[in-house]
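Amino Acid Chain and Its Fold in Token Form
===========================================
Purpose: to set a sequence beside its fold so the mapping can be learned.
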Amino acid sequence: MGVRKRNSADAIKEARKSEYFAKLRNVPTSPRKMRLVVDMVRGQEVFKALGILKFSNKEASNRVEKLLRSAIANWEQKNDRKAEAGELYVKTIFVDAAPMLKRLRPAPQGRGYRIRKRSNHVTLFVDTINNDKD
């Protein structure tokens, strides 16, 4: 690795030390369905978001709830203390498309209908509320 590339990689690592995030990859749900759940918690305080996800009847909400708990645990691990109510919020959360499984379903008259089984990646960043005001 060249010097310039190493310096760039080190700068990215330093910036990541002050960010608290969790990723959920290759979720076998369509990105469109996942975005409905993600939009409910974007910008919310984390414990309020956990309540929203807990009582949502969407199937994707269980996965996002687990991801949010992971992001909170990552924040607690890096800061050596427990998260308190009103301290953390969901800074950024987004859904990207993941590789698609392509299948064929038999159709009338010798045809084949294409089935696309979609999946997605979810990335969630949490941050402290008072850190945002600085």
Notes: The chain is about 45% helix and 30% strand.
